[in-house]
Amino acid sequence: MACLLLAAACCLVCNGCMTPGSIARRALEAPNRQNNMDQEYKSFAFATTNFPAQRITVGPPQATLELMVIEPGDYGAKIFSKITPRRTLSKGDTKTNLFTFGFSFAKFPIRPKLQTNDIRGTIFLLHGYSLSKEFMLPWGLTLARAGYRVVLVDLRGHGHSTGDRIYFGGVERTDLLQCLDELQQRRVCAGPVGVLGISYGAVLALQWAAVDPRVETVTAISPYMNPGTAVADFLKTYVPVLSARTDQKAAGIVAQRLSAEGPDLNTIAAVHRLKQTVLFVRGGHDELCSAEDLNRLKAAAPAGSEVTEVPLANHLVAGMCISQLSGPVIEWFGRQLTR
């Protein structure tokens, strides 16, 4: 799993293309133009044929989002995540942690025991930067088993959605509002609406909720504070071949470009506008979302918001610690999404 997520780093740099300007351009370019992860997520995608895709046109700028809807029910999925502390013999004898993730089905083809007459609500799932809706399938099946209809979204410029570039929420929050408009017209969304997002998806979830009162609650896993610091921290942590000077220059160009386009994309600004409660989650070793950052976000959020932490998890794996988080997340949505 960590190896699959690390593939996102390849979107930002390539041989012979490592100047701050070129890295910044790649950070804003649609990730699905830069990499083809179809072979990488076959362990997730093999099951998606059981959930027909839907497409919705959004914009401006015009793009088409691909969605996957999972009806509530037990699909027989087995999902397992574990973090094991271990010591390595690397220089300095530093501690690292081993993340183990398992995802399988008891029977295939999938013949779920559906519960469509007792839908507790609709939950949207938003993936991280450079990933796709397929990576959210384990969460989708977990929440479907708990009685929710789940909508997995390929965000603009990701997966099988279109779009020339991404906007770190400046356009995407309107995309998601329009997506909910259309799904309500199609009578897909039933009951109250919640959102769960990871990293980039967590920030978009908060930004969407800030402009759309139909979203009743958010679970934000590993949200960063703003695009500029996120790009700098990501490069520093996961692309160590670059210098700190290159990291900072590239991040500054991204921040300047987004700022010139108008919207305030600081996460705390979106949280200040919320009327909905938020469950904030981070990994204990999260490199892009510090405990201090999360506490600042909680302080800015409406009363009743909460913070939880996954011990030992870093930014890459915190969102997929489903064994550790499914209980708190399902309990959160159960309390917040009431008819």
General description of the model:
The chain has one domain: 3-Layer(aba) Sandwich (Rossmann fold), CATH 3.40.50.1820. The strands form three sheets. Strands 1-2-8-7-9-10-11-12 form an eight-stranded mixed β-sheet, sandwiched between helices. Strands 3-6 form a two-stranded antiparallel ribbon. The protein contains eleven helices and twelve strands. The chain has 339 residues and is α/β, with parallel strands linked by helices. α10 links the parallel β11 and β12 (306-310). It is globular and about 55 Å long. The longest helix is centred in the last third of the chain and has 17 residues, at 244-260.
By CATH, the topology is Rossmann fold
Total beta strands: 12
How would you state the average pLDDT, rounded? 87
- CATH hierarchy class name: Alpha Beta
Quaternary structure state of the chains depicted: single chain
Contiguous runs where pLDDT drops below 50 for at least 5 residues: 1-5
Give the CA-based shape. Answer: globular
Tell me the radius of gyration.
19 Å
Question: What is the number of independent domains?
Answer: 1
Helix content: 25-40%
- What fraction of the residues are assigned to beta strands by DSSP? 15-25%
Measured between the Cα atoms of the first and last residue, the distance is 36 Å
DSSP helical segment count? 11
Global structural class = alpha/beta
User: From the 3D coordinates, which CATH architecture would you assign?
Assistant: 3-Layer(aba) Sandwich
CATH homology-level superfamily: Alpha/Beta hydrolase fold, catalytic domain
